[in-house]
Amino acid sequence: MVPQSAKSISAKQLDAWIAFLRAHRRVLEHLEAELRGEHGLSLSEYEVLLHLSRAPRNRLRMGELAANVLVTPSGLTRLADRMADAGLIARRPCPEDRRVSYLVLTAAGRKRFEAAAPTHVRGVQEHFAGYLGGDTAAVLAALSRIAGP
């Protein structure tokens, strides 16, 4: 039995949803390939560097970072371990709460991020933003607000 709410979506709306999912996957695949090929970074690694570069004092608690990245919390823990081993980020204890540690962007991580940023921006423009015309960008931005932070 199909729930009543599922019956209310039109074929056109369902086609749009499927197209959105496919486009999302393809854009991420392109961005990943470009970052790996040109900078040896995964898209997830770049995303961590991006969030840390924008954070106050270039540091975030693991939970804060987990709420903003496209990897699972356990995946983020493994990713952070690899990035720390590579010298891109460091773990620092929180002076106010010993149970908490910060992930901090290192000088090497900033350098790697700054080198990769033009590639990523170019890719976003080429594979995504360049297709947005008229009110499309506003509609997508509205969708992200509906979905939450």
Short summary:
The protein has 149 residues and is mainly α. The protein has helices at 4-7, 11-39, 43-54, 62-66, 73-85, 107-127, 136-147, and strands at 59-61, 89-93, 101-105. It has a single domain, classed as Orthogonal Bundle (Arc Repressor Mutant, subunit A).
Protein described:
With 149 residues, the protein is mainly alpha-helical. It has one domain (14-144): Arc Repressor Mutant, subunit A (Orthogonal Bundle), CATH 1.10.10. Helices cover 64% and strands 9% of the residues. It has helices at 4-7, 11-39, 43-54, 62-66, 73-85, 107-127, 136-147; strands at residues 59-61, 89-93, 101-105. The protein has a three-stranded antiparallel sheet with strand order 1-3-2. The two termini are 33 Å apart. The mean pLDDT is 90.
Determine Rg (CA atoms, Å): 18 Å
How much of the sequence lies in strands comes to 5-15%
Could you tell me how far the N terminus lies from the C terminus, measured between alpha carbons in angstroms? 33 Å
The CATH class turns out to be Mainly Alpha
At the fourth level of CATH, the homologous superfamily is Winged helix-like DNA-binding domain superfamily/Winged helix DNA-binding domain
Q: Sketch the major β-sheet.
A: 3 strands, antiparallel
User: For this entry, what is the oligomeric state of its chains?
Assistant: single chain
Structural class: mainly alpha
Mean pLDDT: 90
Number of helices: 7
Classify the fold: give the CATH topology.
Arc Repressor Mutant, subunit A
In total, the number of domains comes to 1
